[in-house]
């Protein structure tokens, strides 16, 4: 520890925390927001390793969704009907909370609807999914209070100008947000409430005493009464016992496309591939299933195998015969585990966590932040 801080820095910035949150993603910032709203007197800080929020919250696709039919069918192979219903509820309520916390304008929330697309070559798979629509409308209807959620909507295919798509399932309650605006709004709300967010501050170790928690960081030591870990894919580096496995997602975005016909959030291949309109561009991502092993990494980066797949889908199916440039590519890392359920719990006295959104943290992150805040005993 360098310990070259002045008296003033120590007194005003560094000392006397009631709660320190590790990670300034959607979960960490939502936890800070909930805690401060519940108990305005608490001194709360957020320690973030990145120059910007460094995790999936600023890298994602901005789908405000709760599951496409084929994705839910896959999830039912891992969890029971009750467990999947619970997950859908977390996503639905989480989105409601996100919109309440920040307001639709601040996050550019648009309910253009979601669409699951099936290629002509996938007719059997499409039929299986179509047959499951009544089942999922009933299951999800009991959660969200609407029964007309999914419907086959093949009349709409021609409007989007795609090639080789012959089955389309619409989810009329799905929306999209501007991820960058959402994170900026969340940060500024949290900071406006008097919560300090420390960037370039990586927690390397946590030491617990009977009353205090000590966080050893690259900037020095912080002391607090309670800690919330909202460290997502990186959680195992601090708490090795947590079942959190990284899964990288790669994304590309095109240049602006005059007269773009695609509007909405689109799912393909069991949720592994997704695309949407944003600012007259197409954002397209996914393909992790092509190379699970290589994508189980914490390293940022893009690979030929996945980028080639995304480009092929873009130019052959989504924007056929259009000469469009890809302007930018990036990746982000999600936190997965053996179970689909996120981990929100007390690890030991004074140490709590809310991690592992399983690729749906835009949807459930605000609620998980609130849930972990409610666990804190102060
Ligand atoms: C490409 C991609 C597309 C996605 N699309 C969607 C989507 O459309 N809809 C949806 O609902 N979800 C989507 N997700 C998932 C969603 O983005 C995540 O589930 C969500 O952002 C997780 O939020 P979080 O706060 O738990 O974690 P993160 O945003 O990952 O935040 C964790 C933070 O902790 C910090 N940190 C970690 N370790 C330390 C440490 N030791 N010290 C200090 N700081 C630390 C990290 O720097 C990071 O900022 C997508 C994810 C990716 C990668």
TrEMBL record:
Residues annotated as signal peptide:
none
> Membrane among the record's keywords?
yes
Which intervals hold domain FAD dependent oxidoreductase? 18-375
User: Which residue ranges does UniProt annotate as crossing the membrane?
Assistant: 12-35
User: What SUPFAM superfamilies does the database record attribute to this sequence?
Assistant: FAD/NAD(P)-binding domain (SSF51905)
Q: Which PANTHER family match?
A: FAD DEPENDENT OXIDOREDUCTASE DOMAIN-CONTAINING PROTEIN, SARCOSINE DEHYDROGENASE-RELATED
* Keyword Transmembrane applies: yes
Please provide the record's keywords in A-Z order.
Membrane, Transmembrane, Transmembrane helix
Q: Which GO terms describe its cellular component?
A: cytoplasm
- Entry protein name: Glycine/D-amino acid oxidase
Organism of origin is Daejeonella rubra
């Amino acid at each position: 520890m360098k310990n070259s801080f002045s008296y003033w820095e120590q007194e005003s910035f560094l000392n006397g925390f009631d709660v320190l949150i590790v990670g300034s993603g959607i979960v960490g910032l939502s936890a800070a927001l909930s805690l401060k709203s519940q108990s305005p007197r608490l001194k709360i800080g957020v320690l973030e390793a990145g120059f910007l929020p460094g995790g999936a919250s600023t890298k994602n696709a901005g789908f405000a969704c709760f599951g496409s039919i084929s994705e839910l069918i896959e999830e039912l192979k891992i969890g029971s009907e009750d467990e999947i219903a619970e997950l859908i509820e977390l996503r639905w309520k989480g989105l409601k909370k996100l919109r309440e916390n920040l307001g639709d304008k601040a996050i550019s929330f648009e309910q253009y609807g979601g669409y699951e697309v099936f290629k002509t070559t996938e007719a059997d798979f499409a039929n299986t999914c179509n047959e499951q629509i009544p089942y999922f409308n009933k299951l999800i209807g009991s959660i969200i209070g609407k029964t007309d959620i999914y419907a086959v909507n093949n009349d709409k295919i021609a409007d989007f100008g795609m090639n080789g798509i012959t089955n389309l399932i619409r989810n009329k309650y799905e929306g999209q947000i501007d991820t960058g605006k959402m994170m900026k709004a969340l940060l500024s709300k949290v900071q406006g409430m008097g919560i300090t967010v420390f960037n370039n501050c990586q927690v390397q170790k946590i030491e617990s005493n009977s009353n205090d928690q000590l966080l050893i960081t690259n900037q020095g030591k912080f002391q607090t009464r309670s800690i919330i870990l909202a460290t997502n894919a990186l959680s195992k580096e601090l708490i090795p016992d947590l079942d959190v496995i990284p899964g990288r997602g790669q994304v590309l975005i095109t240049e602006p496309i005059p007269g773009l016909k695609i509007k909405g959030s689109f799912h393909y291949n069991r949720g592994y591939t997704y695309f949407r309109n944003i600012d007259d561009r197409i954002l397209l991502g996914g393909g992790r299933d092509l190379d699970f092993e290589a994508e189980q990494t914490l390293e940022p980066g893009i690979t030929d195998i996945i980028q080639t797949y995304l480009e092929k889908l873009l130019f052959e199916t989504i924007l056929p015969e259009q000469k469009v440039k890809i302007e930018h590519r990036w990746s982000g890392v999600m936190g997965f585990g053996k179970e689909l359920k996120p981990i929100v719990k007390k690890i030991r006295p004074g140490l709590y966590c809310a991690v592992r959104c399983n690729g749906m943290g835009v949807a459930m992150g605000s609620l998980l932040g609130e849930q972990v805040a409610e666990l804190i005993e102060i």
